[in-house]
Write a structure and sequence with these properties.
Layout lengths: L4 E10 L5 H8 L2 E2 L8 H6 L6 E8 L25 E8 L7 H10 L26 E7 L6 H13 L3 E6 L9 H16 L9 E3 L18 H11 L12 E10 L3 E10 L1 E3 L3 E4 L4 E10 L2 E2 L2 E3 L3 E6 L10 E4 L5 E12 L12 E6 L2 E12 L19 E4 L33 E13 L4 E5 L12 E11 L4 H4 L6 E2 L7 E7 L2 E5 L15 E3 L5 E7 L6 E4 L3
Parallel strand pairs: 1-4, 1-5, 5-6, 6-7, 20-24
Antiparallel strand pairs: 2-3, 3-4, 8-9, 8-16, 9-15, 10-14, 11-12, 12-13, 12-15, 17-21, 17-23, 18-19, 18-22, 19-20, 19-21, 22-23, 25-26, 26-29, 27-28, 28-29
Helix pairs in contact: 3-4
């Protein structure tokens, strides 16, 4: 078993200046080509601008060894000395408000379906492409400041994207030594209360000082609490379930060339597997390239599978053409102009989600503007079990002026009466599943059943508000540019309309004649069987036409 490595992925998120990069540096023993703010722009501005990747390893705990995968080293790499290793791949995410789209795009790399229902909200489970990639999230909190706006947004993303959380209270060295433990205890209680109504209730909270003295302090200052954090992470992790079946799909976050060898794309495998000599497609460039060599953190490998952090060297192309994006098995991805998605509102987002409104829609590694139309099941189907891996074109759906939720007050007409024509749930009863048609301003390339996040990234970044509006799953992509004519007619979405008529006379206890509901030329046969409500409280059914003047017969069941 010598030399085997089990890789787990850990997202490092938090507000700007909470010390995420310093924490990743203190933990890591191996860095990628863009770790620890190596970009000149990051160094100049003193903040993380893009995703950074690094790793560290510990001996694989005895409790996890029975689930070891087969080794995947290159034949000439030789066995790695020592016992099997548990490798933690750290993803250092930007914390600045204006860079939230980078985090969202990165979290698509690490999204997997929920295995349980959260207290507050979570993405419903489903068989989704690109599943089970992130294994744990570290939420880094500046212990002197507590939860801040981007901390909260990162927590929301975490609820969508992963199942396990560790809260790291950083910068404890800035607390007065005599009052340090009391301040840590106080902040721990605050964080516990914050997590109470989330899926992360009871998550462990640990204090550290990743860079005592701050960024300018000498390197001789040893970090505090790092060994305890590593021990906690090791305890929290279980062997991830990875699936090598299905088409190969990898999210690329960095790209560079090596003279005489080719172009290297680094990223995380979302689904499937890959081997030396395979061909891969770069959809953004519309080219297919052959895999010449592969490495995992400088270690040559012959194969890799879902969840692995990988560098692929292919035949030469200009790396500037692919800053980030997707690489896939040839012809396995499609470019779409619109999509049908299941949708859930993020409860921290203020205000309604209205039909025809535009949002920043993140799907795959792309964020584009999209216009939405919301719809729901018919009222008598509100309680039906959600279907999360397909869209049923054979069903009828009810158009909604806005996403239905319990705190949504129905719109009122000028007369003060409630407007029900849009199908709003006036009694506070909401459907278990809702959908939306998203029309993109420009085409996007993405897999089916991938995560979709809607945001208002143009909102004031200094406002104390959540800009993440909704999340969901892409159920059906519309590839035809003329989808409005070719496919939308199959989408059976209807609006509820109300018309008022009069009872002209009563025939007997069970039948009346009505008028003023239809025009003379109306084919009343089309409306036979529809329900009508009488002002006296009875429920009737249109039975037939009565004469040629637009009158009709209503049957009132006994």
């Amino acid at each position: 078993m010598a030399g085997q490595r089990v890789n787990v992925n850990v997202g490092v998120l938090g507000h700007i200046d909470s010390g995420k990069t310093a924490l990743a540096r203190a933990l890591s023993t191996t860095a990628s080509t863009a770790a620890f703010d190596k970009q000149p722009q990051s160094r100049e501005r003193g903040i993380t601008l893009d995703l950074g990747f690094s790793c560290f390893s510990v001996p694989l705990p005895a409790r996890l060894r029975s689930a070891l995968p087969a080794p995947r080293l290159a034949p000439d790499a030789g066995p790695e000395p020592g016992e099997p290793q548990l490798q933690f791949t750290l993803v250092d995410c930007p914390g600045h408000a204006s860079l939230i789209r980078t985090i969202i795009g990165g979290e698509h790399t690490f999204w997997h379906p929920c295995g349980s229902v959260s207290v507050d909200f979570c993405l419903r489970s489903g068989n989704c492409w690109g599943a089970q990639i992130i294994d744990l999230m570290m939420l880094v909190i500046d212990v002197t400041k507590g939860m801040q706006t981007q901390s909260a947004e990162c927590l929301v993303i975490g609820q969508i994207a992963c199942q396990k959380l560790v809260v790291v209270l950083n910068k404890i060295d800035l607390l007065a030594e005599g009052k340090r433990q009391a301040a840590i205890d106080k902040m721990t209680k605050k964080m516990q209360k914050t997590l109470e109504n989330t899926k992360f209730r009871g998550a462990p909270i640990i204090p550290v000082a990743a860079k005592p003295g701050g960024p300018e302090a000498p390197e001789t200052e040893a970090p505090q609490g790092i060994s305890e954090l590593i021990e906690l992470l090791t305890f929290q992790i279980s062997i991830p379930t990875r699936d090598s079946s299905g088409p190969f799909l990898m999210s690329v976050d960095h790209c560079f060339s090596i003279k005489g060898q080719g172009t290297v794309m680094t990223g995380t495998i979302l689904s499937g597997s890959i081997s030396l000599g395979d061909s891969v497609e770069i959809p953004a460039l519309k080219v297919v390239k052959k895999v010449k060599s592969m490495q995992m953190f400088h270690m040559p490998v012959t194969t890799a599978m879902q969840g692995d952090r990988l560098g692929i060297c292919v035949t030469q192309f200009d790396p500037k053409l692919l800053e980030r994006g997707l690489v896939c098995a040839p012809e396995s991805l499609r470019t779409i102009h619109a999509a049908l998605i299941s949708v859930e509102k993020i409860p921290y987002f203020r205000g309604p989600l209205q039909t025809k409104a535009k949002f920043h829609v993140t799907v795959g590694h792309e964020t584009v503007m999209g216009r939405l139309m919301f719809f729901s099941p018919a009222p008598d189907s509100f309680d039906h079990e959600p279907v999360l891996n397909a869209f049923d074109f054979s069903r009828e759906y009810l158009f909604q002026e806005q996403y239905l939720c319990k705190d949504l007050a129905p719109a009122a007409t000028d007369s003060g009466q409630t407007n029900e024509k849009a199908g709003q749930a006036t009694d506070g009863h909401c459907p278990r599943q809702q959908w939306a048609l998203v029309e993109f301003e420009k085409p996007v390339t993405c897999p089916q059943l991938c995560l979709v996040i809607g945001s208002r990234l143009d909102a004031d970044i200094h406002a104390n508000m959540c800009r993440l509006a909704f999340h969901g799953v892409l159920l059906h992509g519309l590839e035809d540019k003329n989808y409005a004519e070719s496919l939308l007619p199959r989408l059976r979405v209807y609006k509820l309309k109300t018309k008022h008529g009069l009872v002209e006379r009563v025939i007997d206890d069970y039948n009346v004649i009505g008028r003023s509901l239809f025009k003379k030329e109306t084919n009343i046969q089309l409306f036979v069987g529809l329900k009508v409500y009488l002002s006296t409280g009875e429920l009737g059914v249109i039975d037939s036409a009565f004469g040629q003047s637009g009158k009709f017969k209503i049957h009132i069941p006994g």
